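Changelog note: in this version the structure field was regenerated for every chain. One regenerated record is shown below for reference.
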Amino acid sequence: MTWDDALKIYDDITEACNGFERKGKKMIYTSSNGYMFTLLNKDAEIGLRLPKDEATKFMEQYSTGHYYSYGAKMKDYVLVPESLWENKALMVNYFEQSFAYVNSLPPK
């Protein structure tokens, strides 16, 4: 999948979500409460920030791992497998869970 294809899917997901919108021109992300909570990296991979226990469940359920951006492991982020991207309802649910999680953290 090309980066432009991934950006279109990412934008479709964020447009269907409530309470936030996509930010960035080259570094694509969503943020709230001073925290980023979803990312689209230069390798056309989507990362999602979840609480530790939910991140562990996600990685086990979808046979995935931690998310890396520009070679750095992103704390509390999971790599979203491309096989989930077309399930828009599921992706919106996870994006909104991630949004709720960062809003539960103390503001930065």
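Spot check on this record: The chain is about 40% helix and 25% strand. The two ends are 35 Å apart (CA to CA).
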